[in-house]
Task: structure prediction
Amino acid sequence: MSTASSVLKEGRLPRWAEIALLPAINVIVALLVGGLVVVLIGENPLEVVKVLLWGAFGFQEAIGYTLYYTTNFIFTGLAVAVAFHCGLFNIGGEGQAYLGGLGVGLVVLAFDGQPFYVILPLAMIAAGLFGAAWAFIPAYLQAKRGSHIVITTIMFNFIASTLMVYLLVNIFIKPGQMSPESREFAENAWLPFIHEMLGWFGISFEPSPLNMSFLWALALLVLVWLFIWHTRWGYELRTVGQNENAARYAGISPVRNIIISMLISGALAGFLGLNEILGVQHRLLLNFTAGYGFVGIAVALMGRSHPVGILLAALLFGALYQGGAELSFEFPRITRDLVVVIQGLVILFAGALEYLFKPQLLAIFRRIALMRAGG
Amino acid sequence: MKKIFLAAAALLLAGGAAQAGEIKPAVLFDMGGKFDKSFNEGVFNGVEKFRKETGIKYREFEITNESQREQALMNFARRGGDPILGVGFGQAPAMEKVAKKFPKQRFAIIDMVVDLPNVQSIVFKEHEGSFLVGALAAMASKTGKVGFVGGMDIPLIRKFACGYVQGVKYINPKAEVFQNMTGTTPAAWNDPVKGGELAKSQFDRGADVVYAAAGGTGLGVLQAAADAGKLSIGVDSNQNYLHPGSVLTSMLKRVDIAAYNVFKSAMDGTWKPGIQVLGLKEGGVGWALDQYNKSLITPEMKARMDQIEADIIAGKIKVHDYMSDNKCDF
Result:
C-alpha cells in the first residue's frame, strides 16, 4: 500500500521502477531504434541481436573481453559518479586515466627488475596519485577561483594527450621503432590474467585480456559505496553536492569537499591505467584510453551514480563493445561506424533522455494505484 | 547462432587445412580505416580487385582500439582465415603472437617484418621510388630549390626523405632541399591544412617543386601547389589526376598489388613465407606518367628517367636506405 500511496500523493515512481524498469525501457527502445538502422542497411535485426549477445557472452573468451571492457567502465564510471555526488561534472576522466597510465608506466619502467609484490602496490599508488594530481588543478581552480570544472577538466584532457605525445615521442620511444611506444615491461611485472589465476585452481579458461584489475574494480565498487553512504566524509560530500549554502551553514567546507571529491574521482579514473598498461598492453603507448573516460559519463548517468547501477551499466557497455566487435566480424555490411551508432543510441536514450518515459510510466502506475484503491 | 559457434569450433579443430584454390582470406586494416585515401585504401583496392576477379569473399575488420589488434587476428585465425593479411607496422606484435598459435595458417604483413615460418613480410624500397621522383623534381625545378613535406616523423618517412634528397642531388648536386615533418603523432597523417601551410612556407623560400609523403596531409600540399602555380609530387597511389598540370608525378607504392598478390598466390599455391622486398625491379615502387602529367614531362626528361631506372635496377646507382643505419648524410 505504501507504494501506491507514494505514487498517488507524491507523484513518485516506486523505487524498483526508478532504478530498474526505467533504464531497462530505455535500453530496449535504444535497441529497437538500432534495429531500425540495421533493417535500413538490409540485415536481419534479430540475427544481429543474436550475434551481439553471442559475441558478448556466448563463449569464454567473449566473456573475458566483455569483463575486460567492463573493468575500464567501472573505473571511469565510479570516477564520474563520485564527482556527481559533490555536484561536479568531471569530464576529465580521459585525461586523468591517461596520466594514471603514465604513472603506472613510469613506476614499472623504473622498477620492473623488482619482485611483483613490490611493483604492484607501487603501480597502484602511482595510478591513483597521478590521476588525482591531474584532477587537483581543476578542482583547486573550481573551489578557490570559480573556474568552471567542465571547461578546465576538458582542457586538461588535451594537455594530457599532448604531454603523453611529447614523452613518448621524445623520451620513452624504443630506438629504431616506428610507433611511439616504450619498451615492453619485464614479464614479472605484468598483472596476472584471470585465466592464469583460474589456472592456479585447476580451472581452465580461454585466454583473454581480463586481468586482476577486475577484482580491484569490484572492490572499489564496495569501497565507494561505503565511502559515499556510510562515512561522515561521504555525507559532507553529498551535502555540498545538494546545496552548497546549506552545507556552509552547517559548517561543512565546500572548498575542502570539492577538492577531496575531485581527488578521489581522478584517482578512480587513474586506475584505468592499471588495467590497460599493467594488465593488457604491458608497455606505455599512445591513446590507450580510447574514449573509455567519456563513456564513463554515460555509465555513471545510467547507473544513477550508484555502485550497483554502475556495475550493471558498465557490464552493458562492455557487452556492447565486445559484442559490437563480433558483429562487424560476422556482418560485412555492419562496419565499426554502425557499431558506434548503436552504442550512441544507448547513450542517447539511457543517458541523455533518461527521464523521457517517466511521465508515461508514472501515469500507468497512477492508474493501477487508483484502480486498486477504487476497487 | 549455434551454427556459427559449431562452424567456429569445427574450424578450430581442423586448424584450417591449407589447400590450393580453397582459401578464406581475411584482412585487418589499421586505425586509419579502409577509406583513408592512402595506404589502407590501397590495400582495400587490391583485395577488392581480388574479390571481383575470383568471386572469393574476404573477411575484414577495422580496429578502433589497441587491444582489438590481437583479438581480431585471433578471430580470423580461429575461423580458419587463410591467408590473413595485416596492414601496417602496428600489427606486428599481435601477428607474432597469433601466427605462433596457428602455425598451419598463412599470415602476411605489409610494411614490417615478422620473422616466423608461416608469415610473409612485405616491405617496400620506398627510397628507390623517392630517388626517382627526386631526380624528376630536380629536372623540373627552375630555382634549384625543392621541398619535402613528411607526415609523422618516423624512420619510414625519413627513408622517403633520404631517397628523395639523393635523387635531387644526383641531378643537381648544388640543389637545396627544404624538409618539414607535419607532426609526431598519427594525427600528422591527416592534417591537410598544416601540410598546405608547410608547402607555402617552402614556396616562399624559393622552392618550386614539393614532394608530399604524408597520407591525407599530402592533399593539402598538392592543393597549395596548385593554388600557387607550383609543382607537387603525390605519394602511394597515383594522385596525378587531383590537379592536372600541377602534380608533376606520383611516387607509387603498390600496396594494392602486394595485397592482391598475397591472396592470389595463396589461391594458386605459390605463396611463400619470408621477407619480400618490393623495389623498382619488382614493380613495387615507381613513378606515375599518365594523361594528366604528360604535358609536364619533356621527352628528354623521360629519357633521362628511363636511364636512371635502368641504372638502379642494374645496381649502377645505389640508393642509400635510411633505415639501414638511421643516417642520411647527403
Notes: Chain A has 17 helices and no strands. Chain A touches chain B through 32 residues (CB under 8 Å). Residues 1-43+331-375 of chain A form one domain. The first helix of chain A runs from residue 2 to 10.
